[in-house]
Amino acid sequence: MGVNRRPTGYGKTMTHQEPLDLGTTELSADEEERIRREHDLDRPEVFDRRNDVDRRARTRANLLPEELGPGSADPEAQAREVLRDSDVRTEVPESAPDTVVERRESGE
Length: 108
Hints:
The protein is mostly helical.
C-alpha cells in the first residue's frame, strides 16, 4: 500500500496520514489519549474535514511580499500545517504549555 507523500513548506515530507502533534504537554498518558480521540488528532483527514483545513489552506496559500524572496516549496502545504497547528492549539489549549497567556490582576 503506497502512502501519498506531500512536501511541506517546511522542507520535509509529511503524509496526510500522520497523527497531529500536541507537542510536549503535562498531560497524563490517559488524558492525552482521551484528548487525541476526542479531537481526532490521530485521524488528520477527519480533523482537516471538520475544520475545513483544505479550503482554508487554498485561500491562504498566497505568499506575503516578504516571503516571495525565499519562496516556498509548497505554499498550500505550508498554509495547511500552520492552520492545523493553530486549530490544535485552539481546540486543545494544553497542547501549548510553553505559550503563556498573561493574566493581570486589577489594581483595585
